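Table S7 (text form). Paired inputs.
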Amino acid sequence: MRLSGPLESAALLTVLPVPARAAGATRGVLPWAPLVGLVLGGIASGLAVLGDRWISPLAGAVLAVAVLAALTRGLHLDGLADTADGLGPLRGRQRALQVMHQSDIGPFGVVTVVLTLLLQVACLTALLETREGWPALWAAVVVARLAMARTGLPGVATAEGSALGTLVAGTVSVPWFVGWIVVVLGLLVAGTAADLELTARLAISALAGLLTAELLYRRARRRLGGVTGDVMGAMGETATTATLLVGAIAL
């Protein structure tokens, strides 16, 4: 793997400053996306805990969701909106791709983003009222980037006209992806102080997030012919939401 990979991933997936030489590269974006998730999850979890202690669980949840949107330039939310507009109405493949490439957001996209953010805040508020709050949020953010990294595995189809999809296709090897899963599981055990019951609940939540993102990928493959940059972002937001939702249900 390229040593500049983490910087390339941060350049595309965050607003964090990186050297100019890494800003235009893409080969390291998806392989190192989980590492970016670790950083973003740590920042969001810290703000969530502070907001909870200083104000209320609701304030902590809003702060965490807001900072994630700000640190990612809202790109994943934009991808979610575009994907909802493309996949929502009954339309052909070419028309769906055309709609997704447009700069405006349609009604399906607006409703999807609003409901997704509300659900994330509601679930995180409930989680922050327990000791599972920050580990669940951290896990959700990392799982989102694992779901995005999944689109770089060999054999993943790319939709016609997707520049980003073409550039990152096949950049993630299966052993590398499995290695990240092992690392995340190990960090879950460490972050929960080896509380096996809590670790198991978080692992189930993470699995639910990955499976939900997988369903979205398969839907995009059937309707669009494969993934696009928008679909990658949508998979990330979907995984985040599903992980938080199952975590809140399992309280």
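Next pair, protein 2 of 2.
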Amino acid sequence: MPAEAEDGADSGGEQLYYQVLNFAMIVSSALMIWKGLIVVTGSESPIVVVLSGSMEPAFHRGDLLFLTNFHEDPIRAGEIVVFKVEGRDIPIVHRVIKVHEKDSGDIKFLTKGDNNEVDDRGLYKEGQNWLEKKDVVGRARGFLPYVGMVTIVMNDYPKFKYAVLAIMGAFVLLKQIT
């Protein structure tokens, strides 16, 4: 009889080991998929969530954008780009409204949110009037409406995020016990 109890304890330990291993495989698979998307799309962030209403009606808060960033493709007026500005952590999703192309091939451009009254010069770093290709994270190629609302809710309501994590943790523990 004691041998059976030991076997049961061992299988519980093995089950926990396999759950941890399975979780590690899921996380590493997600990271590999993300890195693969980076390589395929040429964008450091191939998927972004629209965080504001500045691009309405084209995109709404919570829309999930799919990006590419192939440097050989010229940037054109009318294109929607995601760009980073020095001193700001969060990339901005706006439309290119003007492009200046020099004979040397250098391109500078100006952006504006569709729902904004003025162009983005007030958002750029001090003294900067134009963006360059190096500022671009990616160009919008497709989107899924409102799929990113989960991200927004998690950022806007940190307690909700911790509650979801606690529920998931409790689920894993309870599943292990049964």
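The chain has three domains: 1-41, 47-146, 148-178.
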